[in-house]
Amino acid sequence: MTKKSSKITRRQFVATASVAVAAPTVLTTRRAESREMILGEGEHKYRVDHAWAQLPDKYSWQTTHNVAVDKANNLYVIHEGRANQKDHPSIFVFDPTGKFIRAFGSQFQGGGHGIEVRQEGNEEFLYVCAYQQVKSFAKMTLKGETVWEKYAPMDAGVYAKDEDTKRQKVWGRNRFMPTNFGFLPDGGFLLADGYGSWYIHRYDKDANWLSCFGGPGNGNGKFNTPHGIWIDQRRDGELVVAVCDRAHHTLQMLTLEGKHIKTHQGYGLPANLDTYGDLMLVPELHARVTLLDKDNKVVARLGDDVKRVTTVGGIRNKEDQWVDGKFVHPHDACFDRKGNIFVAEWVASGRVSRLTKV
């Protein structure tokens, strides 16, 4: 573990996919004749709406990436966007009915990626990170005003010269390409450099860099694209750092110092994490969303279309090949305040689905 100082003050294939059951009710979606679908079984059943979010015509979906919900149950969606459309917002906000509220975040165009909502005192804030040519992470108000924005933590000693000041769309293990956040109870947070150095960075409550762990490798505590991260507190308040080690197709569980605890196998490019009560939510780019219980056992796999998506290829660019009740490339997912689920997919024309608990 690399440290700035010694003083350090935040998402086995053990079950098969659930079978989706069609109901006759007609929904209004992007495609005609779309039917309402029920995913899952038993106590984990959800009604899916693939076109819940209604975007005004003046804006366009540009490869949806991540989602987050505030305490009013408003949904925040970030997409990667296009660097040549600098005036187009990268973040859209929708009310609990799917009605558009506002848009902002044009500074992240071409690199928009991670987004989370965090309660701090009596106020909520957005935490946003961006890769590609942007290479930054920021704290913002829910209306889009920037509180602070920061760049590569050069004190970590793992980045190329000027990576924090001369930001370019250059990839590599000595580059900074942050992907997601994990929030700590003390006000600090962890930041996964999932596309860059493959290190996990720790910051204090004032966003000062403290330490890092991980880095590239195939052993325990090393990563290949640590894309998603979450502080798992489902077991009596114990703090476990859960990391989606995406290209290894695993979830790694570690201590706050990066010491390996356990590795869970059997995922298809796991992308991020969220929790609600005893459940953990794991969107997988290989065409499904997995729910885990408190012991990290699979209790449901939703919208499974793994075989078709991984063998046919190119479906993300062909909306006419998307299937109702099936996912293409879930890139992020989150629970709302009532246990419903939102799923953002890494597809060219954007897709945000709402899974309403039955």
Query: Any idea of the CATH topology?
Result: Neuraminidase
β content, as a range?
A: 35-45%
Q: How would you spell out the order of helices and strands? A: EEEEEEEEEEEEEEEEEEEEEEEEHEEE
Q: Count the beta strands.
A: 27
Summarize model confidence as the mean pLDDT: 90
Topology:
Elements: E1 2-3, E2 21-26, E3 35-41, E4 44-49, E5 64-69, E6 75-79, E7 91-94, E8 100-104, E9 112-120, E10 123-130, E11 136-141, E12 146-150, E13 180-183, E14 189-192, E15 199-203, E16 209-214, E17 226-232, E18 240-245, E19 250-254, E20 260-264, E21 274-276, E22 279-284, E23 288-292, E24 298-302, H1 306-312, E25 330-335, E26 341-345, E27 351-357
Antiparallel strand pairs: 1-16, 2-3, 3-4, 4-27, 5-6, 6-7, 7-8, 9-10, 10-11, 11-12, 13-14, 14-15, 15-16, 17-18, 18-19, 19-20, 21-22, 22-23, 23-24, 25-26, 26-27
Molecular structure report:
The chain has one domain: TolB, C-terminal domain (Neuraminidase, 6 Propeller), CATH 2.120.10.30. It starts with a strand and ends with a strand. It is globular, with a radius of gyration of 19 Å. It contains one helix and 27 strands. Strand 11 (136-141) and strand 12 (146-150) form a beta hairpin. It is an all-beta fold and 358 residues long. The strands form six sheets. The chain has a six-stranded antiparallel sheet with strand order 2-3-4-27-26-25, with no helix packed on it. A five-stranded antiparallel sheet has the order 1-16-15-14-13, with no helix packed on it. Strands 5-6-7-8 form a four-stranded antiparallel sheet, with no helix packed on it.
